[in-house]
Amino acid sequence: MRLAAPGFGRLGHARQLDLYFGGGEANVAASLANFGVPAEFVTRLPENDLAQACLRELHAYGVATDHVVFGGSRMGIYFTETGAVARPGNVIYDREHSAIAEIKPGMIDWDAVFEGAGWFHWTGITPAISAGAAEVCLEAVRAARKRGLTVSCDLNYRKKLWKYGKPAGAVMPPLVEECDLILGNEEDAEKVFGIKPDAQGYLSVCKQLMARFPRAKKIAITLRGSINANHNTWKGVLYDGNTLYESRQYDITHIVDRIGGGDSFMGGLIYGLLTTPGDCQRAVEFAAAASCLKHTVPGDFNQVSVAEVENLMGGNASGRVNR
Amino acid sequence: MRLAAPGFGRLGHARQLDLYFGGGEANVAASLANFGVPAEFVTRLPENDLAQACLRELHAYGVATDHVVFGGSRMGIYFTETGAVARPGNVIYDREHSAIAEIKPGMIDWDAVFEGAGWFHWTGITPAISAGAAEVCLEAVRAARKRGLTVSCDLNYRKKLWKYGKPAGAVMPPLVEECDLILGNEEDAEKVFGIKPDAQGYLSVCKQLMARFPRAKKIAITLRGSINANHNTWKGVLYDGNTLYESRQYDITHIVDRIGGGDSFMGGLIYGLLTTPGDCQRAVEFAAAASCLKHTVPGDFNQVSVAEVENLMGGNASGRVNR
Amino acid sequence: MRLAAPGFGRLGHARQLDLYFGGGEANVAASLANFGVPAEFVTRLPENDLAQACLRELHAYGVATDHVVFGGSRMGIYFTETGAVARPGNVIYDREHSAIAEIKPGMIDWDAVFEGAGWFHWTGITPAISAGAAEVCLEAVRAARKRGLTVSCDLNYRKKLWKYGKPAGAVMPPLVEECDLILGNEEDAEKVFGIKPDAQGYLSVCKQLMARFPRAKKIAITLRGSINANHNTWKGVLYDGNTLYESRQYDITHIVDRIGGGDSFMGGLIYGLLTTPGDCQRAVEFAAAASCLKHTVPGDFNQVSVAEVENLMGGNASGRVNR
Amino acid sequence: MRLAAPGFGRLGHARQLDLYFGGGEANVAASLANFGVPAEFVTRLPENDLAQACLRELHAYGVATDHVVFGGSRMGIYFTETGAVARPGNVIYDREHSAIAEIKPGMIDWDAVFEGAGWFHWTGITPAISAGAAEVCLEAVRAARKRGLTVSCDLNYRKKLWKYGKPAGAVMPPLVEECDLILGNEEDAEKVFGIKPDAQGYLSVCKQLMARFPRAKKIAITLRGSINANHNTWKGVLYDGNTLYESRQYDITHIVDRIGGGDSFMGGLIYGLLTTPGDCQRAVEFAAAASCLKHTVPGDFNQVSVAEVENLMGGNASGRVNR
Amino acid sequence: MRLAAPGFGRLGHARQLDLYFGGGEANVAASLANFGVPAEFVTRLPENDLAQACLRELHAYGVATDHVVFGGSRMGIYFTETGAVARPGNVIYDREHSAIAEIKPGMIDWDAVFEGAGWFHWTGITPAISAGAAEVCLEAVRAARKRGLTVSCDLNYRKKLWKYGKPAGAVMPPLVEECDLILGNEEDAEKVFGIKPDAQGYLSVCKQLMARFPRAKKIAITLRGSINANHNTWKGVLYDGNTLYESRQYDITHIVDRIGGGDSFMGGLIYGLLTTPGDCQRAVEFAAAASCLKHTVPGDFNQVSVAEVENLMGGNASGRVNR
Amino acid sequence: MRLAAPGFGRLGHARQLDLYFGGGEANVAASLANFGVPAEFVTRLPENDLAQACLRELHAYGVATDHVVFGGSRMGIYFTETGAVARPGNVIYDREHSAIAEIKPGMIDWDAVFEGAGWFHWTGITPAISAGAAEVCLEAVRAARKRGLTVSCDLNYRKKLWKYGKPAGAVMPPLVEECDLILGNEEDAEKVFGIKPDAQGYLSVCKQLMARFPRAKKIAITLRGSINANHNTWKGVLYDGNTLYESRQYDITHIVDRIGGGDSFMGGLIYGLLTTPGDCQRAVEFAAAASCLKHTVPGDFNQVSVAEVENLMGGNASGRVNR
């Protein structure tokens, strides 16, 4: 559950908070379902009206939740405020002791979850929450691998999480090892694995990641240029071991909500790889355009259609009114 | 009636809609009344509280509505969402079967309407709605011409309208033929009349329009550069058959609401032509400044004063607080 | 789509409208899905973002929409304002020419719709909209009957609808004839069928309805006492041909939103009849308690749980905070 | 300008204020214009955007403002909060030094104002503001009398005003002497003129007022029973020197906004006396019903139609939804 | 931190939440500071912007926070929705693992806290949160007693708390034993201590409590009659071992926010006992009137002045507008 | 009290106003208190709920108000609207006859105020309001000087104030003469003292001010480049008689609220000079960074922490989300 200070107001002065639901994996699921790809979100939630509201929102986007398990006493919350100009956005995490943080191996029947599924995606936020969540993530990754699913991850390093005693660098490697597709940004690679770009820039990051995690067939990197809190540049690259496919770069001059930007890239990338499997250039362009558009809508979930993404991919970034 | 998704939210996710009244001709009337020029709006409205609300809003701006006729079962609605960066604004028209769409010749007593009037303005949105609306528009234009009123039009081509079977290119010519002043943009001229700019650019569009509609003594064109949905450039030109008068160009970097922009240009142009009849340069500068300012206020109607327009025409675009 | 003036404001003075989705049959489906009964809503919607928003809302409540067909140019709208004290609530219908109003027989594949279904419910609002909607309703009722579904209806007479030339009294009988369960209120029975209560009061209405429509095995009547726009009394009765089962009467002193009250009664009644088939008393109590609670939440859809309904049925109407 | 704490919030804790325009005489003018009676409001306003907003609102209701004079530096403001249960509503007046408070005799050309007019209404709030406002009020009353207009007043005693040195009891008599119709409540009569009811109750107040102000042909009294801040009873009486006509009493159980209640009674009374001159019973019933309905809408101005008032006068107070 | 669904909306459907700060002891401190009595609130808060917002709100009411200690990772939250008619209000507690729940003895320097203080108040909510909070509460009570402060408590039984393994009946007695003044309601006494009223009603509860906790010189009981969620009756009694002082009973017909009602009674009672020490009747009347008024303002903190309370105590419950 | 049209709406069309408290000196006090420097605000306020709200807000920020005196009948108000692009922001002052405007020498006990104080700050807005306010300001400045406080001022010229008959150029000199630190912008210096920059630019302004007011040991100037109403550049300089210390320049591309910008600079400057007394470069950098951040939060008061200012001073202007 995200509780956001309205407009450009600050959390320390808010009188009302806007309520959204979101989170790394949920955002990717919502993107995919919204694009028409069957998607399911698996988590653990407490039994209360707020958890029901979360399920309702996922259902509204078309995300299935049949294997959500119930228990624990609270849902993870994060409080956000939107940055402006030189004032950074801020996130206060209140995820400790949430139902998902207190999950234990065995609580989820991964065989049932993966029945009929083709792809499993996880993000680095889950193993950052608690040792239990990390163990369950590993359990899931291995079950997915065993059943032959494609496995993808977003490294998603969050400095303010990772408080339960183990560093990201110790927990992440066995999880990432099972992945076919790894998404990160330059900061993630450095903070989690100590991988720094050399003169080749992000190509070198792709190569180093692929060298370290040889099962990965593709590495994707998002590249955000933070001119200020309202104005970013944005592009992505996809490396298949041979070629580095680069999307066009977008100049996002009046950001509405950048939270979920990386997840919408991942949603777009999976959509692209599923719908035109061999076409890496199209996949990375779709991902970049989809996530560029995500920056223009409020909330964590991307709310744009395939047609809207394709219109932008086609080069129409003029923003003229459709009428 | 315009129902707009608040802020940068999307229509498909809105929980509240902002309610405005507007429309091509009404917007011009509101501009003029707001500048102190007596103006009246003529239309057909159903008998219900929403129509009364529309009249109330027009009266608030000082627009007379004495010759509005009542009947039909609904008022035309359009739903809008505001674009951001690379996401275009969107309009969903819900104007079919509105009271004005079901208007028939004879329902309005144009002789009574034009008693004492000096100028009649119509836009291409009216004949786009229905065959009946087009016929009544022609009836009005001819009645106006007969009584010696100045007649102006805004071509205002809207792809999503024009659904009743006749194309714009067939319906518009006899209407435009009666006009003394024609306003359009390059897209309008091409979509309605197949007129494309040659090497002379918009000057050639003016010349071609004037050649085709010889009764027109002046042609005006608005020039919008869509950098993205938040950031446009904006200027206008006015051609009197001899000289092309160009306004300064405005850089509108943080658009608040661009709907009604062209109408506010027309309102400013008529104001300029009425108040300093021979001064085409002043008229086009007033029109461009007035419509630049329209982009900074929410809703269809322009809310700025003559003094504010003149302050901007005078070159003060710094936006410093008046205090 | 319902567009409601916020708070106790009037439609003729509103600057914002609250957006809800609702409608007779949709409200019943939402009630049932919310209580955990699989439910599907079948209609015709245009292809635009507002229709997608409607589907999203239905999915949020768990209502399936797999057999919705798309076409037409607009979604039906109704505008509402909430009454206060001696000022009645008001509804402005803007449903003419909606996608559902322009439906024609054959557009919906009722065999596919009814595959695996056990119950079909319709309301008197659908045949009131247009001749086509009435024909499709008859088509549906007969298909349902043929496949052996239980068929129920809510007479739901709305004076402001029924404008297409045929009176309710002519259109409704063949539709109602196919029903196993008929819900109405005293006004409906009189306005549609000319059935007036005699000295036996609503029992006589039940008996007359059953006499006229012999296939009906149960008649239900809701009884609203309008003390004023904020304060109503509310109860329901269910007659099975032998016994009149009466619910307790609720004193609803501070109504939040009474629209959808009758539909929530029907949703509760179907739930009761499905879950404890032989227990008419429980069914009518469940229906009355569920719809009493509907009056306390905003929007057309009932948002209360089975546990909350049962708590009220059990006699706990004190409204003490649960903490 | 009224600035109101939203909902049941307190002024000392508000973060936003709702903006309305209102005031004793303006409210009566808005009632009359809204009922279709030509009405004009005369006052003095400063030259700024807030005053323009005030004029816009009056025009929206159809009130003419052709003789408003401009000058001074501020518009009078009053801040309000809505009471609840045992907590009274509160008003903070900030009207000192307003443009109207600083008005002087001669600033308004009453001959021009009264050209073609038939009725002049003033309230006790105007002479309470300043000596100048009292003098101008006297100037107006005498000019009206001289031209043969019907003159009415509402005594409207406000303890928190009357701060400029002269008591109401000294200022009001020469003003009231000129009136054909006097409206008050029991408190007004006592606080301004020391008139107390005897055993005959409000009839005796009418008689005493008529004895003291023999030019008055009619006396009206509003009778509010304050059960608590949300729940009042309300009725009115009209005395013509012979008969005391009493309206039915309304039980207003869920007040939305009671400010302007007395003014809406006066508006209804004048409407009644103008439209059915000899029918005092109808006039007082219309006034009572109109002002009962005023309690159900937010803001100072009454927003109900003649048809709605007549529906209530006819005995339909059930508040059933019109649909 | 309280996060409340706006209006009568439900938590499971909210899109925005109103943010208040409150809690048993904080509410009493805010009442006292608001009445002009120096008051300080002692707790443990995390170091983040939300905790700063909490301190800001306390300071706004004049409550000192000099001895608040910082640590832990989260602030306790409770989510609320307002009941209506037969739908009860609801509270979802999310207080586990809050900074105050993880407090340990020794973290607060009670000697420093009590320097110069005369009265210490605690409520049953604190020991309900965690074993640590209960231990610190005992530490505080004993330190206060040792330094000769008057100690009061509000039993405040909350069924949804008390989850850490020890029942209220085991934890509360040693805490309550130290108190000079005990406040409860009939349910509290029964649920915590198994004390049930006999034929003497609440007098017997007072006597039993005093017998069990002989150090207590006064027992107060609040008596809420829940007619429904909007309409309660409310009074309080105070027993000094000899006489039972009863306040008048208030009929709260249109509740705005009842959360904090008991705390505002306690704040009023302490105010009364401090300002007119021997006058139990005045104290209980002040407490009852203050808390009656609390029901008419949103949020946990009472926002009414001593003058407003005294006006109500004086019998003026008419709610007439002050103007 | 500031009443602001929400969003980019205009005052002449607003239906709600956002309520803030602010003013030149109060804003500086709030900045300092927010940074942890003990600060007190001295003024004269009326005795009403709005004045209490003002005190509450100051207390929330930690500003002491122990020497505020009460009297008069109103609090000064200013109405604001936010500019956009080429439309300037606007302020309507309604400060005449406010409690502070009607202050007289002797009303404030400056000896008591300055007991224990080290610094006194005033702005040119106070002597602009009324002759009495100017006299009390002089009284204060001289008392502060006499007790050895550091005295600073912000020239803060406001064309729309200064209406009581004496020009700024006559009133300000004796006040400014007593100051150790003078802040202004180029316009202030010219409008108040006729000081214009020569070829040395703002350095020459500093030198001329220092020559004219020799007691001043430091002159600060803020330099705002108004590209348009949303986009300004911003920097400051500090001159100590020898060296001109220049801050970096900030490019504020998406202004949230620029009102209070200069005051937040002054607050930052005093903070810098107090915490690292000899380091002029740090002080001006802190001031510029603090006030750059002020432009990103709504309301007059700066809401950013020392850590946030130092982060920006350190060169991190990327606005990346902290998570």
CATH class of the domain at 24-41 and 108-313 in chain A: Alpha Beta
CATH-assigned homologous superfamily of the domain at 24-41 and 108-313 in chain A: Ribokinase
Give the chain pair forming the largest contact, with residue counts.
A-B, 28 and 28 residues
Outline type of chain A: globular
CATH architecture of the domain at 24-41 and 108-313 in chain A: 3-Layer(aba) Sandwich
Stretches of chain A where pLDDT is under 50 for at least 5 consecutive residues are none
- CATH topology of the domain at 24-41 and 108-313 in chain A, anyone? UDP-N-acetylmuramoyl-L-alanine:D-glutamate ligase
How many runs of DSSP E, i.e. beta strands of chain A?
Answer: 13
The percent range for helix content of chain A is: 25-40%
Order of helices and strands of chain A: EEHEHEEEHEHHEHEHHEEEEHHH
How far apart the termini of chain A lie comes to 36 Å
pLDDT average of chain A, as an integer?
Answer: 96
The largest sheet of chain A is: 7 strands, mixed
Task: Estimate what percentage of residues of chain A fall within beta strands.
Answer: 15-25%
Notes on the structure:
Six copies of one chain form a homohexamer. By secondary structure, chain A is of the alpha/beta class. The first copy, chain A, is globular and about 50 Å long. Chain A is 36% helix and 18% strand. The model of chain A has no long low-confidence stretch (mean pLDDT 96). The longest helix of chain A has 16 residues, at 131-146. Chain A has a domain at 24-41 and 108-313: Ribokinase (UDP-N-acetylmuramoyl-L-alanine:D-glutamate ligase), CATH 3.40.1190. Chains in contact: A-B, A-C, A-E, A-F, B-C, B-D, B-F, C-D, C-E, D-E, D-F, E-F. The A-C interface holds A 56-57, 59-62 and C 56-57, 59-62. Strand 2 (16-20) of chain B pairs antiparallel with strand 2 of chain C, so a sheet runs across the interface.
